[in-house]
Each structure stands twice: as structure tokens, then as C-alpha cells.
């Protein structure tokens, strides 16, 4: 398991890299660890809705070596992740063989709201790096019990952290602070 040398953060489907939670994480870590907030091409082109996940996964997999180089780290030293769709895309890229020191999954969209049968977990058993899940206890995309059950399929070590009362988007200062603290604690445990 490689030490984390840098962190790449990606946004949810309808958001951008300027999402408050991602900005807060970067601000908390930037003196100690290089952090890059990264918009996918559809956002850079001004579109709000993403294309299907596989095309964004291919885009990210192609971008990761360049991003690692720009940050001055090896691809194996780059932890990747993000909010909702962004974290899902990062986890899929790792499952398909992209090098990473770990995956940060903030508000992972395990399934669409009120559709627990439509799981987004088919790739979990191909992930063999450390994973951090941070989710609100009232997130309609995944309950704590659902995350516990399905994250067990991941081959790498999994850390689950829950923010009491938070929904899919942690919209209070206290909830965002809790997300930041969980990410920092996980990175410290990995040896940043």
C-alpha cells in the first residue's frame, strides 16, 4: 500500500470543483498535501448533466497520469475521489485498473433515491485499494446499513464514517467540518 502523496477531488454530477466541501478539504490540507480539485470535461464545456459514467471513467483514467505528473507525484501515490458521481467515477476507474493510493467516496450514490434495487456496486469487488466512505445518516442515496452491507464486497480496506442527520449534500458548517475531519483522519492513518 503506497503512502498518499497527493489528493484529487472531483464533484458530483450537477456540481463543479468549486463545491464547498471540496474547497474546505483543499483548504484544510493544502499546507501539508498537494490537492487538486478537478472538473470533468462536460463541466469544463459548460454542461451541467454528465454523459454516461463509462465515458467519464475513460476520460479520468486518461487524465490521471498527467494530473499526477503535474502534482509531482507517482500515480500510485495519488488518492482520488470526490462527491457522489465524482467518487463513483473514481472508484470505477480504480476497479478498471487505474493506479491510486486510495479512494475517497463522499456521499457515494449507492442507488438512486427510493430505488434501492438499482445498485451501483457491480465494480466493488474489483477495488483493491483503501477506501473511505463518508455519508450522512439521512442520505437518500444510501443508508448506513446499505453502505455497510455493500462496501463489504470491496477487496481493499474500507473505512465507513457517518455524519448524524446529514443528507446527500452536507449543507451545514458542522457537517462539512465533519467531512473534512474524516478525510484528514483517514489520510493520516494511510501515512500522508
Task: Write up what this structure looks like.
By secondary structure, this protein is an alpha/beta fold. It has a single domain (6-190), classed as Alpha/Beta hydrolase fold, catalytic domain (Rossmann fold), CATH 3.40.50. Helices cover 36% and strands 16% of the residues. The protein contains six helices and six strands, in the order E-H-E-H-H-E-H-E-E-H-E-H. It has helices at 20-29, 41-44, 53-71, 85-95, 144-151, 173-190; strands spanning 6-10, 35-37, 78-83, 102-106, 131-136, 158-163. A six-stranded parallel β-sheet has the order 2-1-3-4-5-6, sandwiched between helices. Strand 1 (6-10), helix 1 and strand 2 (35-37) form a beta-alpha-beta unit. Helix 1 packs across helix 6 (173-190) and helix 3 (53-71) crosses helix 4 (85-95). The chain is globular and about 40 Å long. The mean pLDDT is 95.
Topology of this protein?
Layout: E1 6-10, H1 20-29, E2 35-37, H2 41-44, H3 53-71, E3 78-83, H4 85-95, E4 102-106, E5 131-136, H5 144-151, E6 158-163, H6 173-190
Parallel strand pairs: 1-2, 1-3, 3-4, 4-5, 5-6
Q: Overall mean pLDDT score?
A: 95
H/E element order: EHEHHEHEEHEH
Total of helices: 6
Strands, count: 6
Concise overview:
The chain is α/β, with parallel strands linked by helices and 192 residues long.
Descriptive keywords:
192 residues; alpha/beta; Rossmann fold; 6 helices
Amino acid at each position: 500500500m503506497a503512502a498518499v502523496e497527493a489528493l484529487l477531488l472531483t464533484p458530483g454530477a450537477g456540481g463543479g470543483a468549486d463545491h464547498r466541501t471540496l474547497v474546505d478539504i483543499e483548504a484544510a490540507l493544502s499546507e501539508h498535501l498537494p490537492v487538486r480539485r478537478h472538473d470533468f470535461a462536460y463541466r469544463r464545456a459548460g454542461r451541467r448533466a454528465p454523459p454516461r459514467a463509462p465515458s467519464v471513467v475513460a476520460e479520468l483514467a486518461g487524465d490521471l497520469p498527467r494530473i499526477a505528473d503535474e502534482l509531482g507525484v507517482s500515480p500510485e501515490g495519488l488518492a482520488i475521489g470526490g462527491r457522489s458521481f465524482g467518487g463513483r467515477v473514481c472508484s470505477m476507474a480504480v476497479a478498471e485498473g487505474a493506479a491510486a493510493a486510495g479512494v475517497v467516496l463522499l456521499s457515494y450514490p449507492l442507488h438512486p433515491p427510493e430505488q434501492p434495487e438499482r445498485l451501483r456496486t457491480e465494480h466493488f469487488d474489483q477495488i483493491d485499494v483503501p477506501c473511505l466512505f463518508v455519508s450522512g445518516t439521512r442520505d437518500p442515496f444510501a443508508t448506513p446499513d446499505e453502505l455497510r452491507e455493500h462496501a463489504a464486497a470491496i477487496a481493499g480496506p474500507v473505512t465507513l464514517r457517518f455524519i448524524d442527520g446529514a443528507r446527500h449534500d452536507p449543507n451545514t458548517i458542522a457537517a462539512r467540518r465533519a467531512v473534512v475531519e474524516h478525510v484528514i483522519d483517514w489520510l493520516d492513518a494511510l501515512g500522508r
